[in-house]
Design brief:
Blueprint: E1 7-8, E2 11-13, E3 23-32, E4 35-38, E5 40-41, E6 55-59, E7 62-71, E8 75-79, E9 91-96, H1 98-122, E10 126-132, E11 135-140, H2 149-162, E12 167-173, H3 174-177, H4 181-187, E13 197-203, E14 207-210, E15 226-232, E16 238-243
Parallel strand pairs: 2-5
Antiparallel strand pairs: 1-2, 3-4, 3-9, 6-7, 6-9, 7-8, 10-11, 11-16, 12-13, 13-14, 15-16
Helix pairs in contact: 1-2
Bound molecules: zinc ion.
Zinc ion binds next to α1.
């Protein structure tokens, strides 16, 4: 859930300002079976708990499937074993697996609804989390679990889904961002000092966070979520698991 740059090494990131972009043209700068570097990419590279996108690079009538990403000095897209690799200088068409990406966007947005509701109604903060397409968990520093917590939480989250709140993404200078009370709550210790512009994901009226992930445009797109489990992992350490319907 941290904010991140619009560029990784030599690769311009297209997915942060256009979250629905799933096809793009790019030039291969470097390539080996260990990773392919493009001049621009709409593949979400992973981060903030959101896994990397999958998809393909299409060139010269063949296809190289992309099964992950690795971040170093550059952004390396990971090719499927045995697939043809486009050489440096090749123009490729990048195609992001839309189904997987949209499921991850819905899941990531659902986690923001969950953390917003738990903070607003139960006063607890997030201490960790993880997500896969359509299932995820968040950990909270919640001292005691009130009776009926699981059912109440599910109902309160789905009220926010039904309310169809807009989910807006924008950037602010660090100083300005840090004046938003919610940002101080979530990002004070997460934002590296060198980040000067902070990307904000705002579920209008519910939850505002510094965030580098991709999100759906409004909460109704998440779909009705299920709180599948509330686990007690020790003193003040609760793990909440959710799942989303396949649409
Ligand atoms: Zn997030």
């Amino acid at each position: 859930m941290t904010a991140s740059d619009e560029r990784i090494g030599r690769t311009a990131r297209l997915e942060l300002s256009n979250q629905r972009l799933t096809e793009f043209e790019a030039l291969v700068l470097e390539a080996s079976p260990e990773g392919i570097v493009l001049d621009r990419s709409a593949f979400y590279p992973g981060g903030g708990g959101q896994p990397p996108d999958h998809g393909a690079l299409v060139f010269d009538g063949v296809m190289c499937r992309i099964v992950g990403a690795r971040k170093g000095d550059d952004l390396y897209l990971l090719p499927a074993e045995g697939d043809p690799i486009p050489g440096p200088g090749t123009r490729v068409r990048g195609v992001v697996d839309q189904g997987r990406r949209f499921e991850l966007m819905r899941t990531h947005s659902a986690l923001h609804v969950l953390s917003g509701v738990v903070f607003r109604d139960f006063g607890a903060l997030v201490t960790g989390g993880n997500m896969d397409p359509l299932s995820a968990r968040l950990d909270f520093n919640l001292e005691t679990v009130p009776e009926g917590f699981r059912d109440d939480l599910e109902r309160l989250c789905n009220q926010e889904v039904l309310a169809d709140r807009a989910i807006e993404v924008f950037s602010l200078p660090r100083q300005e961002a840090m004046e938003i009370p919610d940002i101080i709550r979530t990002a004070t210790n997460l934002l590296p000092p060198e980040i000067e512009v902070v990307r904000i994901v705002d579920i209008v009226g519910l939850d505002t966070q510094a965030d580098g992930g991709t999100h759906v445009a409004s909460t109704a797109q998440i779909g009705e979520l299920t709180v599948t489990k509330v686990e007690n992992k020790g003193k003040g350490f609760r793990r909440v698991r959710i799942s989303l319907p396949r649409l």
